[in-house]
Amino acid sequence: MAKGLGLTVLLALLPAALGQLNTAARVAGKKYFGTATNEFQFSDAPYLAELNNTQDFGQLTPANAMKWELTELVQGQFTFENASLVVEQARNHGQLLRGHTCVWHTQLPSWVSTGGFDKKTLLSVVDKHCSTVVGHFKGQMYSWDVVNEPFNEDGTFRETVFYNTTGTDYIESALRAAHHADPQTKLYINDYNIDGTGPKSDAMYNLVKSLKKKGVPIHGIGVQGHLVVGTVPTTIEENFRKFASLGVEIAITELDIRMETPATEALLAQQKEDYKTVISACKNVPACIGVTVWDWTDKYSWIPGVFPTEGAALPWDENLEKKPAYYGTLEAFLGH
Ligand SMILES: *[C@@H]1O[C@H](CO)[C@@H](O)[C@H](O)[C@H]1NC(C)=O
Ligand SMILES: *[C@@H]1O[C@H](CO)[C@@H](O)[C@H](O)[C@H]1NC(C)=O
Ligand SMILES: *[C@@H]1O[C@H](CO)[C@@H](O)[C@H](O)[C@H]1NC(C)=O
């Protein structure tokens, strides 16, 4: 009671800007709070108005536009027009950018997945793709998710066309190509269900450790943060500290915490606590440099399309109204 009242009074006394997510993240020592977005949503004026609000969003990630099938659908023919719209939006507002993603087994054109390339050829295909895409946006990206989702749940490598053909060599090739194309951008490997400790997190730890030992450029671990209300791991901070011991940075890259819909007051209250848990873990570990939500409003969440009985995963609802999760995020950054 006293604590809640104290926060209310404090927030009332602070300048309004401090009561917003990116500003609060910066106060907590982080580089940004940001969001994924799609350029085709920019025609939604109320959506765009809030996306422009740098007090909530200091960083953007193109949710789709930089993926392989949207940048090199036909071998050797690169298209960047749509991705450039997101880059321009961020530049207009002084927001940082995370590039997403060079090598992923999904949204991958069939000329890659069923091309029947031998190892040497596939490695050169990966090299060419990453060099070209990362090189195109040279100097403009804070970081890149160079490799996305390389692991199975048990910590073994996912048997994608890349792994089946090259073993783990594709990871090294992609990272080296990206580094050569833009030596300043920070290179990440990104995955889900590596929030808390467990076999998949151990696998990520071991991969990054071995890459660093070999001198392969790797600067960050992307923890996606696709979570479920009421089941958020209790070991996130412990896991982040272990990742940090490798000397890399950590970012929460795709945060959303879904629930069975329709949302109830009890579920929304639990979701607020779950956002607080995740954000507090990032706040408490200096190597965790920022948090990105996978879009900010339930209006544009990917969840119902993939998990039809679930949704309401983001800090703003479908009408662009702030939910308890918004205030949970704020409270966690401000340390209450
Ligand atoms: C948002 O920013 C874009 C430029 O990136 C601008 O065209 C648009 O008018 C802005 N909208 C609002 C509501 O501020
Ligand atoms: C760019 O986006 C538009 C509108 O969403 C879409 O019709 C078009 O196919 C996209 N271009 C590429 C090259 O993906
Ligand atoms: C990779 O190899 C495994 C084991 O042989 C197989 O089950 C899987 O379908 C292969 N993946 C692809 C993308 O070809």
TrEMBL record:
<keyword id="KW-0378">Hydrolase</keyword>
<keyword id="KW-0326">Glycosidase</keyword>
<dbReference type="InterPro" id="IPR044846">
    <property type="entry name" value="GH10"/>
</dbReference>
<feature type="signal peptide">
    <location>
        <begin position="1"/>
        <end position="19"/>
    </location>
</feature>
<feature type="active site" description="Nucleophile">
    <location>
        <position position="254"/>
    </location>
</feature>
<dbReference type="InterPro" id="IPR017853">
    <property type="entry name" value="GH"/>
</dbReference>
<comment type="similarity">
    <text>Belongs to the glycosyl hydrolase 10 (cellulase F) family.</text>
</comment>
<dbReference type="GO" id="GO:0005576">
    <property type="term" value="C:extracellular region"/>
</dbReference>
<dbReference type="InterPro" id="IPR031158">
    <property type="entry name" value="GH10_AS"/>
</dbReference>
<keyword id="KW-0732">Signal</keyword>
<comment type="pathway">
    <text>Glycan degradation; xylan degradation.</text>
</comment>
<feature type="domain" description="GH10">
    <location>
        <begin position="15"/>
        <end position="332"/>
    </location>
</feature>
<dbReference type="InterPro" id="IPR001000">
    <property type="entry name" value="GH10_dom"/>
</dbReference>
<dbReference type="Pfam" id="PF00331">
    <property type="entry name" value="Glyco_hydro_10"/>
</dbReference>
<protein>
    <recommendedName>
        <fullName>Beta-xylanase</fullName>
        <ecNumber>3.2.1.8</ecNumber>
    </recommendedName>
</protein>
<keyword id="KW-0858">Xylan degradation</keyword>
<keyword id="KW-0624">Polysaccharide degradation</keyword>
<keyword id="KW-0964">Secreted</keyword>
<dbReference type="GO" id="GO:0031176">
    <property type="term" value="F:endo-1,4-beta-xylanase activity"/>
</dbReference>
<keyword id="KW-0119">Carbohydrate metabolism</keyword>
<dbReference type="GO" id="GO:0045493">
    <property type="term" value="P:xylan catabolic process"/>
</dbReference>
